[in-house]
Amino acid sequence: MAIDGPAGSGKSTVAKTLATVLGWSFLDTGAMYRAVTVEALRRDLDVEDYDAVGRMAGSLAIETLPRVSVNGRDVEDDLRGERVNEAVSAVAANPQVRRHMVERQRRFASVQPLGTVVEGRDIATVVFPDATLKVYLTASLAERARRRGDEGESSIARRDVADTTRAVSPLRQAAEAIVIDTTGRDVANVVEEIVECLNTKISS
């Protein structure tokens, strides 16, 4: 299952809950790009230096469960720091980084015994275009900023522009994706709707 959407739309929370309900694996691709960003900043790399960051990304061992780690070092608590929030869009726009991460994402899904719920910004359009079900989550800017207590509306809006206009794998709603506005809705309600859509898709 591919779940896409802008920052703060509820992707991670919904996807994790869905994976638990379905008994599937879960992969947070956004955490992977943030992990690369954390490491680039730790090494004092210029995040706009695509070659240097790309080479580094290819050499990293990144785990996302149970907590996010880079080369065995837990970075979970560093993922949403202010510097990472400001730099992650540049790292995620790096073609070399994306190539390395997409390869790992596809490899992860290929070895899961059941299904996998994968969330990000290019999952249905680039990483898994043949996903059984494609979901695009959205929410109002005010709601998304509220959820991301560490980021204001202006920061979220800048991320939206960066994510939708980047040259490589921009955030797009897949033509066949089910669109769900999560504004004011609880997670259980959204998950229930997606499970119903999945069951309908499988039985059709």
Topology:
Layout: E1 2-4, H1 11-22, E2 25-28, H2 29-42, H3 50-59, E3 62-63, E4 69-70, E5 73-74, H4 82-92, H5 95-110, E6 116-120, H6 123-127, E7 134-138, H7 141-147, H8 153-165, E8 178-181, H9 187-203
Parallel strand pairs: 1-6, 1-7, 2-6, 7-8
Antiparallel strand pairs: 3-4, 4-5
Helix pairs in contact: 1-9, 2-4, 2-5, 3-5, 4-8, 7-8
Structure explained in plain terms:
This protein has 204 residues and is an alpha/beta fold. The protein folds into 2 domains: 1-23 and 117-204, Rossmann fold (3-Layer(aba) Sandwich), CATH 3.40.50.300; 25-111, Rossmann fold, CATH 3.40.50.300. Helix content is 51%, strand content 13%. The chain has helices at residues 11-22, 29-42, 50-59, 82-92, 95-110, 123-127, 141-147, 153-165, 187-203, and strands spanning 2-4, 25-28, 62-63, 69-70, 73-74, 116-120, 134-138, 178-181. The protein has a 5-stranded parallel sheet, sandwiched between helices. α1 (11-22) packs across α9, α4 (82-92) packs parallel to α8 and α7 (141-147) packs across α8. It starts with a strand and ends with a helix. The mean pLDDT is 95.
Quick overview of this protein structure:
This protein is an alpha/beta fold and 204 residues long. It folds into 2 domains: 1-23 and 117-204, Rossmann fold, CATH 3.40.50.300; 25-111, P-loop containing nucleotide triphosphate hydrolases (Rossmann fold, 3-Layer(aba) Sandwich), CATH 3.40.50. The chain has helices at 11-22, 29-42, 50-59, 82-92, 95-110, 123-127, 141-147, 153-165, 187-203, and strands at 2-4, 25-28, 62-63, 69-70, 73-74, 116-120, 134-138, 178-181.
